[in-house]
């Protein structure tokens, strides 16, 4: 048996949003002796290569969009130089580094010991941590949390796929690509396609089916696809990639061979950036889960119950490594609830994350927001006769000054169930949807009914008033 160098009440493996939230709650609020281990930068995917730098980039793209639209309001703006992507990128990096430092200070303030290294389970109560300098420490803990997150996938069966990047590599780009192809149909592909396009790249989005965001309500899928095409993003439906190869004499450029709906016999495209956004896998390599007896599903995700318990009594797991709802605020909420349950005493013995009615937003152009069931899911769950749908489609007042071809859509849908018309789903597309949904999400979470929405006096003139005046 390896020598024991450290002992604690709680060992947290993974320094992302969920793991840190749980570690700080356990130590800072409940006094548990806690050690947190992270092999990369503190903050995990969200802070370093996810939500935070993504939203900063989305802001830049939104400013570019506004500058383009300003002419319709009478502004004469002359561009004296192209968008300085390199300066923007370095400022964004500086911001992320400041957040890394804040996370480290927060751990210190909550008396969480932080080890920077790679952890490997030895058994159900101990782990070996390989530190940056190669030295090894063994940590023995009464309870262990697995919160290691995930990483983006690159296809293994496409020759030359390594020439592309993933969402992680997006944030390493020093220059804005001239022509970019994104492969994927989820949040990441759709968000990054919008950002590339509005910042000035010729943007191609390759999807396997007819629409993207296919887990969202059909209204969202159809509307955002149409809008992206209106804006000039080139969508390749029913596509597949055969191979990618370097272009001779053109450093940084590549040729992708593919098929799609308009070229079923095959075609090629020259690119200076290819981004794979085809899903993510749990970060479980060399973690030693099998040594501790922790069960995983067919995708490698850690299997947990509603209380984040794994198959091993004193080992818990949360966040993307479990694959429940892969959103940062979900991991944070689950982490805090688990910290309460494990160390907060009898008052918190049943504390757990509620995975029902979690609001989510896609920072597309325009934004998309959703909470609850889509219309098809509601019909499947309750039956068509039990479901009533209210929807509206209009042009937001912001676009009143613009030519018809420049006007973006706004579409809302409210899905209700039963005679009481309880709101079981809300789906919104249009400017401001992200901020709007946070407030309406509270109402849906509280079990509001359609008449509760109707009873709220509208704020005029806003787009949000349409959600309380639907007929």
Provide a short characterization of the protein structure:
With 471 residues, the protein is of the alpha/beta class.
Give the SSE layout.
Blueprint: E1 6-13, H1 17-29, E2 34-38, H2 44-49, H3 51-69, H4 85-109, E3 113-123, E4 126-131, E5 136-146, E6 150-152, H5 167-170, E7 179-183, H6 187-199, E8 202-206, H7 218-231, E9 234-236, E10 240-246, E11 254-260, E12 263-271, E13 273-276, E14 280-282, H8 289-292, E15 315-317, H9 328-343, E16 360-362, E17 368-372, H10 375-382, E18 387-394, E19 410-417, E20 422-429, H11 433-445, H12 450-454
Parallel strand pairs: 1-2, 1-5, 2-3, 5-15, 7-8, 7-13, 8-9
Antiparallel strand pairs: 3-4, 4-5, 6-14, 10-11, 11-12, 16-17, 17-20, 18-19, 19-20
Helix pairs in contact: 1-4, 1-9, 3-6
Give the overall average pLDDT.
97
Number of strands: 20
* Strands in their spatial order, largest beta sheet: 1-2-3-4-5
Distance between the termini: 70 Å
Helix content: 25-40%
Radius of gyration: 24 Å
Oligomer: single chain
Give start-end ranges of low-pLDDT stretches.
Answer: none
What kind of sheet is the major sheet?
A: 5 strands, mixed, barrel
Count of helices?
Answer: 12
Shape assignment: globular
How would you describe this structure to a colleague?
By secondary structure, the chain is α/β, with parallel strands linked by helices. The protein has 12 helices and 20 strands. 30% of the residues lie in helices and 26% in strands. The strands form 5 sheets. Strands 1-2-3-4-5 form a 5-stranded mixed barrel. It has a 5-stranded antiparallel β-sheet with strand order 16-17-20-19-18, sandwiched between helices. A 4-stranded parallel β-sheet has the order 9-8-7-13. The mean pLDDT is 97.
């Amino acid at each position: 048996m390896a020598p024991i160098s450290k002992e604690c009440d709680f060992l947290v493996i993974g320094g992302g949003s969920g793991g840190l939230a749980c570690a700080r709650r356990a130590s800072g609020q409940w006094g548990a002796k806690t050690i947190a281990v992270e092999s990369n930068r503190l903050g995990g995917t969200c802070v370093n290569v996810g939500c935070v730098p993504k939203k900063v980039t989305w802001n830049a793209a939104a400013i570019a969009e506004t500058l383009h639209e300003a002419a319709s309001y009478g502004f004469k703006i002359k561009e004296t130089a192209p968008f300085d992507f390199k300066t923007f990128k370095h400022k964004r990096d500086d911001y992320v580094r400041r957040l890394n430092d804040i996370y480290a200070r927060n751990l210190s303030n909550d008396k969480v010991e932080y080890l920077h290294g790679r952890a490997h389970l030895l058994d159900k109560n101990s782990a070996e941590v390989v530190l940056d300098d190669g030295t090894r420490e063994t940590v023995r803990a009464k309870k262990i949390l697995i919160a290691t997150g995930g990483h983006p996938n690159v296809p293994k069966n496409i020759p030359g796929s390594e020439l592309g990047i993933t969402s992680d590599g997006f944030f390493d780009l020093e220059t804005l690509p001239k022509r970019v192809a994104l492969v994927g149909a989820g949040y990441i592909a759709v968000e990054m396609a919008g950002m590339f396009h509005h910042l000035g790249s010729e943007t191609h989005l390759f999807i396997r089916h007819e629409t993207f965001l296919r887990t969202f309500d059909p209204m969202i899928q159809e509307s955002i696809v149409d809008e992206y095409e209106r804006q000039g993003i080139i969508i390749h439906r029913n596509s597949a990639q055969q191979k990618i190869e370097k272009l001779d004499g053109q450093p940084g450029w590549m040729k992708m061979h593919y098929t799609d709906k308009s070229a079923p016999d095959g075609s090629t495209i020259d690119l200076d950036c290819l981004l794979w956004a085809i899903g993510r896998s749990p970060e479980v390599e060399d973690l030693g889960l099998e040594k501790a007896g922790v069960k995983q599903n067919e995708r490698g995700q850690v299997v947990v119950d509603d209380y984040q318990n794994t198959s091993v009594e004193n080992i818990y797991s949360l966040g993307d490594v479990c694959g429940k709802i892969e959103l940062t605020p979900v991991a944070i909420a689950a982490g805090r609830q688990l910290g309460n349950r494990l160390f907060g005493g009898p008052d918190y013995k049943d504390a757990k994350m509620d995975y029902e009615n979690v609001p989510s937003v896609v920072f597309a152009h325009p934004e998309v927001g959703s909470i609850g069931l889509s219309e098809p899911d509601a019909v499947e769950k309750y039956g068509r006769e039990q479901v009533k749908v209210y929807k509206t489609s209009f042009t937001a007042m912001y676009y009143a000054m613009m030519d018809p071809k420049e006007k973006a859509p706004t579409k809302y849908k409210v899905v209700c169930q039963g005679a009481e018309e309880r709101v079981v789903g809300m789906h919104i597309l249009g400017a401001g949807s992200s901020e709007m949904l946070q407030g309406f999400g509270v109402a849906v979470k509280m079990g509001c009914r359609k008449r509760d929405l109707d009873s709220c006096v509208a704020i005029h003139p806003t787009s949000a008033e349409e959600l309380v005046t639907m007929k």
